[in-house]
């Protein structure tokens, strides 16, 4: 049975699905590929591409896990990271311009092959529409409105540029590429195009980051909310940061009956059987728990596990230490009622099992 | 409330900083080649810019209407006390 490591970060920022050794191996492969690409004399975009490549799978696995647990908040997280990458590309271009004395021919960022109007309009339209979706989902977050307004201004610029690029290439090449707000553009400003677009991106990314920081305070694990639906949002967020991911293979015993109990578990993937054994030596499965169901609460309250919990399939769980669970029970009467209800159900099942004896000869 | 002011201050400082940097680079580093459209050609496409702005404003307005409807639905559900209030 594997337990994930715990760092002092909110749950959503931790690497939760993949073991830390996988992350370290990926880092080593990425580093080796980077060294290899430099020694082989790859261009800058090639070096960056091979460095990023091994991380794509890691991010995909981790992202799926985060989406399952944090819902749409995971989309916001990925979106902010992508937009930070985009701002980095503009920053690299600014540095190249500075280093080359403003020579645009050698200043196209890392992935210079993608520096043309179609790519710009597709990316910025995605940012604009992505922000619209985030705004709808998190419509109480004021900073998303600020980011959306700046993304809209940026979108006007790129729609204009894309149109003239495709319909009047002569004008585009004779200076039309400066756009609406660029120096000597339709409206105009003191900024040349690359510097203006660097500024635009800063104005989108900064409120996005503030909005993301705010939204992090509302992010909690969906399975915790499903298991204990009466927790307040504040309790859900606080408790989420204390959860630890536990993985069990089919057949693994997660807790054993009558052993000292120290954890409360929520099933998030797979199935867990609760098995009660009698002094006479027979045992019976009293419940099969599916994602969103929990166990271990009776053990915490009595000090000993009431049943053996065994993974029926490959299973993932969230574990909460007994102290945090007890605090939660003390602070919230509704949670106590939820847990009491579940304990009563388990007690009835156990009584039904141990009372008349096993009917099916286990 | 206090936190809101701090965030707003951070945003204003970053905005001024980013604009100042962009302006400084324009003035001191420049851009080569710098191709600027002649006055008559520049005015030729103002309708395209206006069209792009109108399209973006229309989409933004649609998004805001959806948000208003969503908030109204949430408020009505809360008043009725029946449907769950959306979190987050």
In brief:
The complex is a heterodimer of chains A (362) and B (88). Chain A is an alpha+beta fold.
Quick tags:
heterodimer, A: 362 residues, alpha+beta, Jelly Rolls, 2 domains, five-stranded antiparallel beta sheet, four-stranded antiparallel beta sheet, 12 helices, elongated, B: 88 residues, mainly alpha, flat
Folded structure, characterized:
The complex is a heterodimer of chains A (362) and B (88). With 362 residues, chain A is an alpha+beta fold. Helices cover 56% and strands 12% of the residues of chain A. Chain A has helices at 20-39, 44-70, 73-99, 117-137, 142-167, 169-173, 193-216, 222-227, 233-240, 297-302, 322-331, 333-354; strands at 2-3, 244-248, 253-255, 263-269, 272-277, 283-289, 294-295, 308-311, 315-321. In chain A, helix 3 runs antiparallel to helix 7 (193-216). The radius of gyration of chain A is 28 Å and the shape is elongated. Chain B has 88 residues and is an all-alpha fold. Chain B has two domains: 1-35; 36-88. Chain B is built from three helices and no strands. Chain B is flat, with a radius of gyration of 23 Å. Chains A and B meet through helix 3, helix 4, helix 5 and helix 7 of A and helix 1, helix 2 and helix 3 of B.
């Amino acid at each position: 049975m594997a337990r994930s490591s715990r760092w002092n970060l909110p749950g959503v920022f931790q690497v939760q699905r993949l073991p830390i050794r996988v992350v370290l191996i990926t880092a080593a492969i990425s580093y080796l590929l980077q060294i290899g690409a430099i020694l082989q004399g790859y261009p800058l975009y090639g070096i960056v591409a091979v460095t990023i490549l091994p991380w794509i799978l890691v991010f995909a696995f981790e992202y799926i896990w985060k989406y399952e647990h944090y819902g749409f908040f995971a989309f916001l997280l990925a979106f902010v990271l992508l937009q930070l990458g985009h701002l980095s590309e503009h920053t690299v271009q600014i540095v190249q311009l500075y280093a080359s004395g403003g020579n645009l021919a050698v200043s196209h960022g890392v992935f210079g092959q993608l520096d043309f109007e179609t790519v710009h309009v597709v990316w910025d339209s995605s940012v604009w529409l992505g922000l619209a979706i985030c705004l709808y989902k998190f419509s109480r977050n004021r900073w998303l409105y600020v980011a959306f307004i700046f993304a809209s201004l940026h979108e006007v610029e790129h729609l204009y540029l894309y149109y003239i690029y495709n319909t009047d290439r002569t004008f585009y090449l004779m200076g039309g590429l400066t756009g609406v707000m660029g120096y000597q553009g339709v409206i105009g400003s003191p900024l040349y195009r690359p510097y203006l677009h660097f500024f635009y991106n800063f104005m989108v990314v900064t409120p996005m980051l503030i909005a993301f920081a705010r939204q992090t305070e509302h992010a909690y694990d969906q399975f915790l909310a499903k298991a204990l639906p009466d927790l307040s949002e504040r309790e859900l967020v606080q408790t989420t940061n204390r959860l630890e991911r536990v993985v069990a293979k089919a057949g693994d015993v997660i807790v054993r009956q009558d052993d000292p109990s120290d954890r409360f578990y929520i099933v998030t993937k797979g199935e867990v059987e609760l098995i009660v054994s009698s002094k006479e030596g027979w045992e019976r499965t009293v419940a099969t728990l599916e994602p969103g169901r929990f166990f271990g609460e009776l053990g915490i309250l009595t000090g000993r596990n009431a049943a053996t919990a065994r993974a029926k399939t490959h299973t993932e769980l969230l574990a909460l230490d007994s102290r945090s669970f007890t605090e939660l029970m003390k602070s919230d009467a509704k949670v106590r009622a939820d847990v009491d209800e579940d304990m009563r159900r388990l007690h009835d099942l156990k009584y039904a099992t141990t009372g008349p004896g096993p009917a099916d000869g286990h | 409330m206090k936190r809101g002011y701090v965030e707003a201050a951070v945003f204003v400082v970053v905005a001024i900083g980013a604009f100042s940097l962009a302006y400084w680079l324009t003035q001191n580093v420049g851009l080569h080649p710098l191709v600027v459209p002649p006055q008559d050609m520049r005015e030729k496409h103002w309708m395209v810019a206006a069209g792009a702005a109108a399209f973006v404003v229309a989409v933004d307005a649609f998004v805001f209407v959806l948000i208003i409807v969503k908030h109204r639905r949430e408020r009505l559900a809360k008043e009725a006390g029946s449907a769950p209030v959306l979190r987050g």
